[in-house]
Known about the structure:
Elements: H1 5-23, H2 31-47, H3 52-84
Helix pairs in contact: 1-2, 1-3, 2-3
Amino acid sequence: MNFNYKGIALIPIVTLIVNIIKKAGVPSKFAPLVSLIIGLIFGILFLADSDVKQGILLGIIIGISASGLYSNGKELTRNISRKSN
């Protein structure tokens, strides 16, 4: 398994796509699932290197990482706004 710069670069892209989908009306409670699905798709399309199992595993890692990036960023924004008030 080779999780290189392409995999790392896909994490914020997945986060951005999930945020766009949420603004389109999908409830926030489905954001982790959407992130996982998009991560799976990207893993298979861009990282599989002729091994679908590897693409699925890397896609799961991307989806979970993107979900965590969003929730941690959201919490950081809340903390900063609380301290500035």
